[in-house]
Amino acid sequence: MKTSLKDKVAIVTGGTGAIGTAICRQLSDSGARVATNYRSDQKLKHWQEQNKGQSFFAHKCDVTDFNACKDFVAAVEKELGPVDILVNNAGITMDTTLRKMTWEQWNTVLNTNLDSVFNMSRQVVQGMTDRGFGRIINISSINGQKGQIGQCNYSAAKAGMHGFTMALAQEVARKGVTVNTLSPGYIATEMVMAVPEDIRKQIIAQIPVGRLGTVEDVAFVVDFLAAPEAGFITGADIAANGGQHMM
Questions:
Q1: What stretches of 30-115 show up as alpha helix (H) in DSSP?
Q2: pLDDT-based confidence at residue 98 (cuts at 50, 70, 90)
Q3: What is the pLDDT of residue 169?
Q4: Does residue 97 fall inside a structural domain?
Q5: Which end of the chain is less packed: N or C, by CB atoms within 10 Å?
Q6: Domain total in the chain
Q7: Where on the phi/psi map is residue 81: left (φ > 0), alpha (ψ -120 to 50), or beta?
């Protein structure tokens, strides 16, 4: 059965990245009206050129800024209508071992990857509960589940996302709102494909299905969790990692 999100309004943070773009396209193909944020005018122009024919609404917003997120959601609701679906996808890495990590590297990653989840969710949760429907989907990572050398900041933020998911899921479960985490493994984004081939082969050798994930693999799960029919799934952390890490 094909998912139908007709008349639903979705926000995807970090939508101009590879995974974010795939999520925007998938939700749009399922009938949703989709909005995303951006920070760089130049990157937005390039992204719009790559997505000609798509009617995404884009608004400049730094997701680490609570008031900017408030303005972002207000702009989306004015343009598209009340927000039904929020995909917290924005994220960055600043990798180094803890003994070399600066406070700025720690704080910047936590602000972008974890604080943004609060900043955005806080703006939409009341409206979702009032209307009796909502989907909040937090894009975490395999490294939030198992940790990774050189990623104390990133792994902490991504693990924290699921703690947030479980707590909020319990708060809103009786109001028709679900909150879930999706934890992708290694996805064939431009960044991963830039890794030397011999290293990529070593990574793939650790993945039981024998390949890297695609951005469409991630977008499909988001689309599924966003569906009205997925209302019995909440507080879950869904692994999309090809079997590389099983919990």
A1: 41-50, 66-79, 103-110
A2: very high
A3: 98
A4: yes
A5: N
A6: 1
A7: left
